[in-house]
Specification:
Two copies of one chain form a homodimer. Chain A is α/β, with parallel strands linked by helices. Chain A is built from ten helices and 15 strands.
Amino acid sequence: MPKKSGSSIRLAHHPCVYSFAAVVGSKEADGPMGKYFTHTEQDPMLGQKNWEQAETRLQQMALQDALHNGCLQQDELDCIIAGDLVNQCTSSTFAARRTAVPFLGVYGACSTMAEALLIAGMLTDAGFTRYAAAVTSSHFSTAERQFRFPLSYGGQRTPTSQWTCTASGAVVVSSQGNLPRIVGGCIGRIVDLGVTDATNMGAAMAPAAADTIFRYLRDTHTKPEDYDAIVTGDLGNIGSPLLYELLGKQGIRIRDVHHDCGAMMFNEHSQDTHAGGSGCGCSASILAGYFLPQLRDGRLHRMLFAATGALLSAMSSQQGESIPGICHLVELTA
Amino acid sequence: MPKKSGSSIRLAHHPCVYSFAAVVGSKEADGPMGKYFTHTEQDPMLGQKNWEQAETRLQQMALQDALHNGCLQQDELDCIIAGDLVNQCTSSTFAARRTAVPFLGVYGACSTMAEALLIAGMLTDAGFTRYAAAVTSSHFSTAERQFRFPLSYGGQRTPTSQWTCTASGAVVVSSQGNLPRIVGGCIGRIVDLGVTDATNMGAAMAPAAADTIFRYLRDTHTKPEDYDAIVTGDLGNIGSPLLYELLGKQGIRIRDVHHDCGAMMFNEHSQDTHAGGSGCGCSASILAGYFLPQLRDGRLHRMLFAATGALLSAMSSQQGESIPGICHLVELTA
């Protein structure tokens, strides 16, 4: 039976990342990571009638591509674990409603892929599922009009703001298969240091990332240099230095192995995306498009995937609430 | 290691329902179940500045009461698994933000307690958690203004509509303890038969309840009469007969052992609640307030808790979408 080690989790049977896929929009495809994604959609509406249906379609495509990459049929899945940013997570539930696959809805804002992947890993490790899919999505236009302004308003964006990615990632976890493997993880705690600026979510999330990474390194008696990559998503260009500062106070220096999915997604100089990418699909698509292939091909051997989420709503900000952050972590090995 | 049985789940180590609590508002306390709840709050604002903060407070109180009933300290919890109906689940995340307990956010609309309890059961059964809390809440006023109309508008409610309960339930699952025990469960599939009437959610959810209950009975080779109670939440007075009809077509008659939390919560004749109660807190509070004590005291021996959710948003209804339903199930024994 797997045992707890401090507040971190070890998976005794090392479930396998069986297959995966990343689908993104055209702006994401134009960025520095563009060539790595499984599939690019040029039409931001994906042929649908509204933005919410477009995001639903994006998530369906990511799961279909992941199943196809693993030569799996949909009915071989024991569970879909999915979430997104849209109110009541309808992108995920509507994407799954024609599948007839058991479904667990999860919500961790932009940390959702790490939460879903960790739950998929635990359920598969314990034998409750043979094939479990972790799926998340975001769409610039669904997020922009829900959290910020009507798209046609053309509001000015602050320098600290991040750009919600039009992207979806799907990862199928299985008890069978070879590489990469999920060996452990850490369920995030909610950390709120009182940041109230909803246009600076990197600052709101960095303390949660520091808390989770610190706890995992402590519980596993490892150091940053034991990993080829410690990947956060999505602290962006503002949140990442704050993470270095917070961990630095604990005597931990991760800068040499750190990558942030939000900072990787766009060219900040040419793409007008300010502090970087964000959204449930950002870290999910970079994990599935860029990092998992590197683990599969042996170019990376050991990495931490620590996705971060800002747990605000449009209403909570209007009510003057500060922004709680959370960061879930998954350790992957080749 | 626990094994899958069809699409249902058996928990090999029978984790224990260690402690629990239910906190409700004054209207719920005035209903036929009033005397069973742990705690009643007369002030619908719970001393807070807005309805969302009031719901957050309700959830904090339910967890505190459950911990107190189990003589547990908060820091003994390995995980809180929580969700609610408010956009981005802020009632749950804000309730947990001062706890420093690892947190998994889940979303299953009014089925959330069954989803959270099933995940808590699986993680504890597998040894990932020693104490895991499943917590959900709803508040009439947060739901009404988010999903329907401003409270001051005074809109007329249709005969099929349900009344969102001001209620929260918390259940702590542990590998240690005596009774009651979680022995199995079934992760719900999303079922959408095309119901588009957002004021008739019982009809939208009944097909999902029928699907999950049918699958669990089939997979476990059991019949309704093998259980002292098959409890749904919240089909209400419209959805319950539809469930009988759908299961009847499969040759399954559950009427003699069936109870519905939505139908139990209010007196439909004197409380003007129309088709019954609803909300993440409805089935959670009746489970924790009424059914779990009966299992603990040996008055019930074996029951199914099958909470249902309508996976709509205000926007999805406005966009003409039908309402997907889901039903997660947990089997409990004394």
